[in-house]
Specification:
The protein is of the alpha/beta class. It contains 14 helices and 11 strands. Helix 4 (about 55-65) runs antiparallel to helix 12 (about 250-255).
């Protein structure tokens, strides 16, 4: 193994230590590096994918701030939201509905939102095509994150089609993106709802067996300052995020995630999210 390879492995293991509960030595790692800047990323995909996708962001901010930067997440969205509101992270990237709940309930500052919007998908197996949403009646819809904006949008779309959750169909929850797709192998679960980002990271052999149709476009992730900051520091962080897309690391981030830029959250996005904030809070209880 080359010296460069050893260094890369050490960096990966160090990052894994920052993921909540990911390894037994996480507490010791944080104690030894108390000054590290913590980026909290919503656990909509596996910790491995999060660490891979957000590495360019970590490296960019470490260079900008001259500090060690770590990526952290949690075991589920409820735990992640709790940690967010408790100030566990310096910077938070999370679903737009969770971000606006945190803005209201935790008085956290919004720094910007990702573009473009997220395609929300209904996914089915190619060898078991679904002619219409009516095929879901009496059966189950597979979902990974019940509090996510994609999940809430799926439920709203089905309600508009005359299918009510827990009455006309039921939701079944998956541990991760791969198991979400695998639930479709049984006839009782003909359809899953997921984001395009979740669909893109499925293993090739799983993705090739599936087809999808887009049912909505929902606002993308929002960045929050996870802790109180002086106005000057807040402005500097907001400016750094805004400039990220024009850097080599920003372009690498785009190739990994599809995120093209970070910009001010438009009023239209806030208006689109407002109707689901009460349901989001209920799902977090």
């Amino acid at each position: 193994m080359t010296t460069q390879s050893r260094r890369e492995l050490l960096r990966i293991f160090g990052a894994l230590a920052a993921v909540g509960g990911a390894c037994a030595g996480a507490g010791n790692a944080r104690a030894q590096n108390a000054a590290a800047f913590q980026i909290g990323v919503m656990p909509n995909v596996s910790a491995r994918i999060i660490l891979t996708n957000y590495r360019p962001m970590r490296e960019y901010l470490a260079e900008k701030m001259g500090r060690t930067v770590e990526i952290a997440t949690a075991t589920d969205l409820r735990e992640f939201q709790r940690r967010t509101l408790e100030g566990a992270y310096d910077l938070v990237f999370t679903a737009a509905n969770l971000a606006l709940v945190a803005e209201e309930d935790g008085k956290l500052d919004v720094l910007g939102g990702f573009e473009p919007a997220i395609p929300a998908l209904f996914v089915t197996r190619k060898d078991a095509p679904v002619a219409s949403l009516e095929a879901l009646r009496g059966k189950a819809l597979a979902l990974a994150n019940p509090q996510s904006l994609v999940a809430l949008s799926a439920k709203a779309t089905l309600a508009n089609a005359g299918l009510r959750a827990d009455t006309d169909y039921r939701a079944t929850w998956a541990r991760n993106e791969d198991s979400l797709a695998q639930l479709l192998s049984g006839g009782d679960t003909p359809m899953a709802a997921m984001s395009m980002g979740e669909f893109r990271i499925l293993r090739d052999e799983i993705r090739q067996s599936l087809e999808f149709r887009e049912f909505a476009r929902v606002p993308n992730f929002i960045a929050l300052a996870g802790k109180p900051m002086a106005p000057a520091s807040l402005a500097q962080l907001r400016a750094a995020l805004g400039a990220f897309a024009e850097t080599d690391l920003g372009r690498e981030f785009q190739s990994l995630t599809g995120v093209q830029r970070i910009r001010a959250v438009p009023d239209a996005d806030r208006a689109a999210i407002a109707p689901v904030l009460a349901e989001t809070r209920a799902a977090l209880r």
